[in-house]
Amino acid sequence: MAQRQRRRTSLSRCSLSIALLSALSAPALANGDVAGAPTTLDKVVVTAAGFEQKITDAPASISVVSREELSKRPYTSLVDALRDVEGIDVGMETTDKNGRATISMRGMPSEYTLVLIDGRRQSNVGQLYPNNFGGGQFAYLPPLDAIERIEVVRGPMSTLYGSDAMGGVINIITRRNQDSWHGSVTQGFTVQQDDQFGDARTTDVYLTGPLLKDRLALAVRGSYYDAKASNPEWDDLPLPDGTLWERSIGFGGGGKAVANTNWNTGVRLNWTINDDHDLSLDYDVSRQKYDNSEGQTGTLDS
Q: Sorting pLDDT into bands at 50, 70 and 90, what band is 48?
């Protein structure tokens, strides 16, 4: 017999990765430069071809959001950080039932925008986000103090990354070994002008430093996001015959959103083998919870 189940649901993800990073070095050439004169280096990207190259030589349309640009505003999600980047499509009609927006590029659905952190895949295929919960894959952003830059590649990258990169690729590059210990704790609040929309708060924690100088470094990170439910209502619409049409708003697409929380924590060990090679061990856990106590987002039959 079919039975409707209403419950608080949680989504979790745990990942363990080992990465061997290699960088190409080139000799410095003197050409009559004055000793001690400042040198301007070209921007270097890695996402377009899988190895370091000048952004002007990359075979793709690329934008880079630098560490300095990220520090200017208290971004709470990847969507916020990339909202003003050219070629990024973020619209209210793409929000899911948690009120989380999605990202699309080149006219493709959000399922074809691949998200990477240091080249490691973060996105899941669209079938793993049923019932309009796809915004979860764009919700996570490492603490701003941990990010070196964000590379955005617009256009098909399926040859290098697979079919879920047909729209483009977003690669979050984190900072490497630091010479000294330092950390940060950041809190942010979003207060809605209209009380029909839920407020939100974020907390980010980051700590990094050397265990062995110039050889072994440790980085610990954590973030927490809490959003209240949104229940906007529309005024009734008058019809030509004088009657009123009672308009209702569903969940997602800029309408209602359930209360939800999202937390993430991770740790990384980075061993510098030599000037050209790093070996890193990274462990990451994230969990999302949302309120479905009244079956607001749908029910399951069992």
A: low
